[in-house]
Design a protein that fits this description.
rod-shaped, 4 helices, THO_Thoc5, Fms interacting protein, mainly alpha
Length: 214
């Protein structure tokens, strides 16, 4: 049975299920102690009753130990997600810087294109990849005239920049998703911490009662 419909992370669901099992085991322990006290009256507890109480106490301790281990694993997982978010944020920052450089180059190209319209052959000053490198990538343009070749080179540059922009957008989406996932895990862990504190506070009377019996 799912621990909470608002929590979907498998590890956190397991933590909450284990917490519920520990709480139920604590209730069983209280019932056994109370039953033993009622049966013994003012006399000592029978050995059979003491053995049953000890058994239930061990089961409760096992559940609590498992809960602590799962809680620690959940913290480590949240830390790992935070690290992944930082890595993606760094990648996005690098791409953003590259994009700013491309914007700068784009403005420069636009200025050069405007200059081409006014001055003869100034289009050759555009910072495009060398003709030899372009033809190695696109041999289908080997027979193009000078004008068609220049248009193809400019289109190639635009395609490369659009691909880089698409990559930046995708990384930005990944970054936002990881940030949202990390925030959700932090919120879930915060709620789990509160539940664990409540459970520990609720278990204190049980511990005192057990110490009294023992």
């Amino acid at each position: 049975m799912a621990a909470d419909g608002s929590i979907t992370d498998p590890l956190l669901v397991t933590v909450l299920d284990t917490s519920r099992a520990a709480r139920e085991q604590a209730v069983v322990l209280i019932d056994r102690i109370q039953e033993a006290l009622d049966a013994a009256g003012n006399g000592p507890l029978p050995l059979e009753a003491q053995a049953e109480i000890s058994k239930q106490q061990k089961l409760l301790n096992t559940n609590i130990a498992q809960l602590r281990g799962l809680h620690r694993s959940a913290h480590f997982k949240a830390r790992e997600t935070k690290g992944q978010t930082a890595e993606v944020r760094h990648e996005v920052d690098v791409l953003h810087l590259q994009l700013q450089n491309l914007y700068y180059e784009q403005r420069h190209l636009e200025g050069e294109i405007a200059a081409c319209e006014s001055f003869e052959h100034t289009y050759q000053k555009l910072p495009l990849i060398p003709v030899e490198e372009f033809l190695a990538l696109h041999p289908e343009h080997a027979d193009d005239d000078e004008n068609d070749l220049m248009v193809a080179r400019i289109n190639h540059e635009r395609t490369e920049r659009e691909a880089l922009e698409q990559q930046r957008v995708e990384l930005q989406k990944r970054k936002q998703k990881l940030i949202a996932d990390n925030k959700k895990r932090r919120d879930d862990l915060a709620n789990l911490d509160k539940d664990l504190e409540k459970f520990i506070d609720a278990a204190k009377p049980i511990q005192k009662l057990f110490e009294k019996v023992v």
